[in-house]
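We were asked to recover a plausible sequence for a given structure. The inputs and outputs are reproduced exactly as logged, with field labels preserved.

PROBLEM: sequence recovery
POSITIONS: 501
GIVEN STRUCTURE:
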């Protein structure tokens, strides 16, 4: 089941790192390429909160099996896509069918592991949840540079088939209850699907279309707000809601969801920002980018045994607080970024980010979900995992907006100082004019070429300063998260096995 979880989470970033290659292979326009990722994320965020109800209907065994089989089959379809439209449809299927693997692993760990063993299982799952997105650019860059972009999807086939065949043989947690199909709140499902899909679209596409200056973004924002508001009211009133919103009445679960949201911001947004910086500012290839950020994944793996060792002696709340604080320090160290930074300069900040990820993720699972009674766990797990994905979507949207606005602001401030009164700028233009003017047939364009070079230099530095601002925003989110941990109650894991449902 953890192999399935790893595949589902890895697939988000492994494809994101090679979108340009996929678009080129399918002769797609620039504005169509992003939909390869957006379609997957929209479908996934709809299905994750539904997984609790689907588990009750079909059982953990058969839901996970169907999800693994669907993910594997749709991966094959993605590899065989013949144009961008077919790819978008198959990616949506991949996200829709594979999404249930993520929350189902979390609830299953509570069945199979009790007592102190829950700490170990949460550490393993937490490590997978944080390492898989980090390894995405590394694996995706290597596959794209050495094989072909279609192998981004072919690599899912063998492990996906193995998971599909082995889960029915090994997993036996609960029994299906098909009678729930008759009593289901289908109107609530529709409202949730419409609300979450339009919200994800707004977050993913808002920056590209200048947010509410675009009529489609504005309409989708209204549709999302109204749909989700009606969904919340309905879920609190009907007898059999598809999502157990009443679980938010539990303090630990509510705080756990907030912290899951913040860790989603940290994990997914930094994996978005760092490759973007290395690609656009430093001009790195996909493989070079992957190798430059590889240290984050190594540090995450090293953090797991350290967490397990410390968890035997220290309250999980304090370990989580330390993890959140360390992540905040990492973001602060990222804020000193310059246009000359490469793998060497990124090493310490990335280690500070990677090592505490399991400290931030694993305790939130035990403290947030472990505080709920078993009968509510399945429904609540979907909400809990959705918050992490939603945090990633919000974090990326906010960071993209920060990059856009702050780059313009920093460029204006830099350009205002590049006048004839600035000796350094004047000498740069003079030297560049002489250099370009000395080229055969280019003497008359030497000054214009020098001005363009100065413009590019100013734009590069403005972009770098904007990245620093984006990292500071993430730092503030983790400062808030560090404070929130103090309000969580301690959860003692049960020693007796949890009954099947």
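RECOVERED SEQUENCE:
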């Amino acid at each position: 089941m953890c192999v399935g979880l790893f595949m589902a989470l890895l697939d988000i970033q492994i494809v994101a790192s090679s979108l340009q290659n996929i678009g080129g292979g399918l002769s797609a326009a620039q504005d169509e390429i992003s939909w390869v990722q957006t379609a997957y994320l929209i479908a996934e965020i709809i299905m994750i909160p539904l997984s609790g109800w689907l588990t009750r209907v079909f059982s953990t065994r058969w839901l996970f099996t169907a999800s693994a089989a669907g993910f594997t089959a749709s991966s094959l379809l993605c590899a065989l896509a013949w144009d961008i439209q077919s790819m978008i449809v198959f990616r949506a299927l991949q996200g829709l069918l594979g999404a249930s693997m993520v929350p189902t692993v979390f609830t299953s760990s509570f069945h199979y592991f009790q007592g102190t063993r829950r700490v170990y299982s949460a550490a393993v799952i937490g490590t997978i949840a944080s390492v898989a997105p980090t390894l995405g650019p590394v694996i995706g860059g290597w596959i794209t540079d050495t094989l072909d972009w279609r192998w981004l999807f072919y690599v899912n086939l063998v492990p996906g088939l193995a998971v599909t065949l082995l889960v029915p043989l090994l997993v036996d947690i609960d029994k299906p209850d098909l009678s729930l199909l008759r009593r289901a709140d289908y109107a609530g499902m529709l409202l949730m699907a419409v609300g979450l899909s339009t919200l994800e679209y707004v977050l993913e596409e808002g920056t590209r279309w200048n947010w509410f200056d675009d009529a489609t973004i504005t309409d989708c924002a209204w549709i999302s707000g109204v749909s989700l508001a009606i969904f919340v009211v309905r879920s609190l009133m009907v007898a059999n809601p598809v999502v157990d919103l009443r679980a938010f009445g539990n303090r630990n679960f509510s705080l756990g969801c907030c912290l899951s949201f913040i860790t989603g911001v940290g994990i997914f947004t930094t994996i978005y920002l760092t490759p973007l910086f290395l690609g656009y500012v430093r001009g790195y290839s996909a493989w070079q980018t992957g190798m430059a950020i590889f240290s984050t994944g190594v540090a995450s793996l090293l953090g797991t045994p350290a967490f397990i060792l410390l968890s035997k002696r220290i309250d999980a709340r304090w370990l989580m607080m330390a993890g959140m604080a360390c992540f905040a320090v990492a973001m602060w160290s990222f804020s000193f970024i310059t246009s000359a930074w490469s793998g060497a300069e990124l090493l310490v900040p990335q280690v500070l980010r990677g090592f505490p990820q399991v400290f931030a993720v694993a305790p939130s699972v035990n403290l947030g979900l472990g505080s709920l009674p078993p009968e509510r766990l399945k429904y609540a797990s979907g909400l809990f995992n959705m918050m992490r994905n939603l945090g990633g979507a919000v974090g990326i949207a906010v960071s993209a907006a920060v990059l856009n606005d702050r780059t313009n602001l920093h460029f204006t401030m830099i350009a205002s100082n590049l006048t004839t009164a600035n000796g350094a700028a004047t000498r740069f233009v003079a030297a560049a004019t002489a250099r370009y003017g000395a080229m055969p047939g280019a003497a008359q364009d030497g000054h214009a070429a020098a001005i363009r070079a100065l413009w590019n230099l100013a734009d590069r530095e403005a972009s770098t300063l904007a990245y620093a601002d984006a990292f500071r925003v993430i730092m503030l989110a983790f400062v808030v998260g560090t404070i929130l941990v103090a309000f969580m109650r301690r959860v003692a894991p049960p020693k007796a096995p949890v009954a099947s449902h």
